[in-house]
Amino acid sequence: MTRADSCLSCRKPVRSPARQAAIRSFLLSNVAARFYPRLFVFFHQIPLCVSCIERLPLLEGSLCQRCGQPAARKPTTLTPAPNPSAQPALPLCHDCIRFAPDDPLSANRSCLRYNQWGKEMIYLFKYRGDQRVADLLAGLLLLAYYRHYSGMSFQLVCCVPLHRHRLQQRGFNQSELLVRRFAHHTKLPVVPLLVRTKDTAKQSKQHSRRARLSGMEDAFCLQHDVLHALPPLLRSASRSCKTASAVPILTRILLIDDIFTTGATVRSCARTIRNHPLLEHAEVCSLTVFR
Amino acid sequence: MREYLLYVKRGCGGRSWDTYVTPCFDADRLYWQERDGEQLYIVGKSRSLALVFALRAEIDQLLASHSAMQPPLEQIHHSTAACVQKVNRAYVRMVRDSGEDDAYTSAMVPDGQAVHWVSSSAQREDRPACTLPTPDLITADMAEQSADHLLPLLTGRALLWEEVEVLLRSRNHTPSVPLAVGLQWLVLRRQLEWVPAVRVRLVRHVLRHRCSWICERCGAGDADGSVRLAFCYSCQQGCAYCLRCLQMGRSRCCTPYIRAEQQMSEESNLPGRSLSRLQWSGRYSPLQEQAAEQARRFAARPPEEAKGGTAGFCPAFLIWAVCGAGKTELIFPAVDEMLKRGGRVLIATPRKDVVLELAPRLSAVFPSVNVIAVHGASEQKWEDAGITVATTHQVLRFYRRFDLVVVDEVDAFPYHGDPVLHRAVERAVSSRGKLLYLTATPPASLRRKLIPTKRCLAWLRPSQTALVSPTHVMVPQRYHGRPLPVPRIVFVSRLNEKLQAGQSIPPLLDTAARSLEMERQVFVFVPRIALINHVLGYLRTRLPHHRDLMAGVSASDPQREQKVRKFRERALRLLVTTTILERGVTIPRSDVIVLGADDPVFDEASLVQIAGRVGRSADDPDGTALFLLNRRSDAPCAARRQIRAMNRLAEEVAVTRRECQSSGGDKGILADVKRGAFNR
Fold first, then answer.
1. For a surface tag, which of A179, B316, B578, B616 has the fewest beta carbons within 10 Å of its beta carbon?
2. What is the pLDDT of residue B672?
3. Which domain holds residue A177?
């Protein structure tokens, strides 16, 4: 049975003399040195032992510029997108090319490959309800954020909501736990933009890609009482733009979820956000732990 | 979302007052209308079951000294409000202290109100807190009927609300009235009790009040960080859950934990039941026979008399049999005796593979009895049977159910130093039930409890332990009658450095080489997984003739089962391993080497078990057990002492028996053996 200071995945004691050095070398080889101090504090509290930290399956190599899929998995799929406008061509994966012209999602980045270890962690988190895993996954989210999104400025973050019934049944929303910890460290405002209106079957129980995509249609809607509070928030965030108009020209919204598989959930959220006139031109990016 | 209502009612006796907690007040009203139509005074309601029970304890204290005709409602409301406020403050402080920062805390506990309590003082009339969907359609008869259906399913179990729902679904039981009504009816009939799965208690202190959280299922508290506070969407407020028993489903403040004691079965006195169901053709050695008979008598004794050695609250008995004495067969007569009396039997064992091996063996021996195997992934989890073979974690789901609980290998891994599983096992014993421990290496606490020692001039002679007492029996001899191989202890200085540097270690190499040349198999035990590859490489370079016959296996090895199977089939001849193979593996013609036996991983019990791997089969009762030590340490010497003592005891018994036979005495071995002494 689990003890308070044992590793979440292998149950060995967390504390060891080599831990500090291991975390340092792990972080320094994966993020820019200026982010190291804040990440170190976070990683030091994570209930994961040295050998498990070193074995984390990070997504590396050249990534699809849209969904963050590493090219190494399918070597030939990254091709420059068909490009009607004058923008520079992005190397995209096969799936994203299919979406390309009207993809509501600007980008997705993830931290880890979704392997057996990831499955165990997600199981422990979502179905067993061990909320210590949230600390761990939030640390990984921060790592991915500083790796991939450090040059971008976001005006707000929001999480993928759960349906009322599912929330009642599970007792917590896993993405909300993640986003809260994440936002506390990045000091970004959390805005619960979305509500889930359709109680879809669990994504993990649906096998075909098409079923997942069609099941997600109109699953979300915007939470209207939050929208009133939105303009001042966006304006204050983009004060540097010095625009006279009430609605800022460009906003970037960060969506947070635990897994990105086909991207059906995240894309559905992004489409719902961008369907609103106020947020029509918003750029919606997503950040997930597993890919 | 469930809400729980707290109300006060005059007790049946007249002058005293009782408090009740209910999730559906309508059911309670129906119930009391039938009995005595007295007034029910509602105190208030909350979504947190833990809070309601904490307040109930508070009110009970208040009412204990109260005997007036009217309940002191003013006083009750006043003290509950104060208590809720204190709990809230303590909760918020605990969240802050747990290292979470303010932003996070305020999101978790808005307006400083962690747990909500709605007092009924605001609304004078006793309006029900939650009405049933169709209150008119539910009658007392329907509730009664539903309760009668539920009782046989739940009796003898301790389950979370969610598990009750799973149980009902698996038995295709669809209650005609809401589940809460049926359950509450049983509570009012005092056949079932429910408590919050995580209980909260306000610890008053002069300076600061504190909350203590205790998991009702596993007994873990917040003192060692096993209970974690969190905002819960199921009850929409601050809640707490237990980390220790998380793998069996979340035990939370807002989840009811439902316990029902096993109802005494009426059929137990039927005459036809006293037939033996044991169909076993094997034979006992004389010592085994004596032990089995003792265990049977223990099972047959009425519970009042068997109270001799109390382990906790129920009578207990210890069978201390050396490794390879044939322990499983010893319990057959005791199990049979209990089944004759119409009792249920539980055999709890630490590992799933043992469960899977034991269940078919038992059902072969007791063909007319229903035997089920209960483990995490078992299909038979919710069934009812005469003999239940369960892993120790599953035992947590039983409540005062079994008349005989046999605990196999009390000192093995999950029990070892874990109070949770001891608690689970003792709780599974019914109010008239008994505990039977079965082990080769009883822990000191059990020895103290169950083995009476003769205190005769302790400073002159070592204290003596009888072979047989009302609370224990020893089997110091293996079934084939030969003594246990005594381990050889050899000191090798700088053992690890020598292994690293590849220097020669003669005791290790000579023993291994000799065994391999004599076509024997060798276990090499190491203290840590990381050492396995090291030692394997060392042995391969040092003994190149046998390099293909060696392998290393650890708990995290995906090929573990294949490798062990190959070792059994003699395709592998030398296995480097950790303590995972210390018990349960029987390989004829094998030897054992322990590298670094002074490591704290190896305690006395595990070294005795390891040495017990050697010489188990009748055609090869001897073998070598070698302990290599870096430095002096107690455990290996204690293990050797224990093995020697057992051999000496076996010898004494044999001598007594021979004398007895030659003198033509017909008293049976039992009386003579009683004189045998065990020196420690």
1. B578
2. 42
3. 152-291
Residues of A whose CB is below 8 A from B109 = none
The predicted complex's ipTM stands at: 0.78
Is residue B496 assigned to a domain? yes
Over residues B7-32, the pLDDT tens digits come to 888 776 666 788 899 988 888 888 88
Task: Specify the number of domains making up chain A.
Answer: 2
Q: Does A15 touch chain B (CB under 8 A)?
A: no
Q: How far is CA B411 from CA B86, B173, B349, B421, B438, in A?
A: 43, 40, 11, 11, 10
A37 and A157 together in one domain: no
Residues B106 and B235 in one domain: yes
A155: exposed, middle or buried (C-beta count within 10 Å: 0-12, 13-18, 19+)? buried
Instruction: Verify that A284 and A159 share a domain, yes or no.
Output: yes
Q: Are B402 and B335 in contact (CB under 8 A)?
A: no
B36 within 8 A of B72, measured Cβ to Cβ = no
Last-in-domain residue among B475, B502, B527: B475
The pLDDT tens digits of the residues spanning B496-537 come to: 888 888 888 999 999 999 999 998 999 999 998 888 998 999
Residue B606, pLDDT > 80, answer yes
Residues in Cβ contact with B561 at an 8 Å cutoff, skipping those fewer than 6 apart: none
CA B188 to chain centre: 30
Structural domain harbouring B222: 4-124+135-259
Q: Is the pLDDT of residue A76 over 50?
A: no
pLDDT band at B249 (very low <50, low <70, confident <90, very high): confident
E-state strands within B143-255: 158-160, 193-196, 198-203, 210-215, 227-232, 237-242
**pLDDT of res. B488:** 93
Residue B481 has pLDDT above 50, yes or no: yes
| Rounded percentage of chain B residues whose pLDDT exceeds 90 | 20
* Domain annotation covers residue B86: yes
Helix A36-44 to helix A132-148 angle (10° resolution) is 160
Nearest by CB to A130, from B243, B252, B556: name it.
Answer: B243
Q: Compare all CA atoms of chain A with the CA of B220 and give the residue at the minimum distance.
A: A3
Interchain CB contact of A170 with B (< 8 Å): yes
Residue B447 has pLDDT above 80, yes or no: yes
Q: How many structural domains are present in chain B? A: 4
Mutation target to probe the A interface, by most A beta carbons within 10 A, among B102, B243, B396 is B243
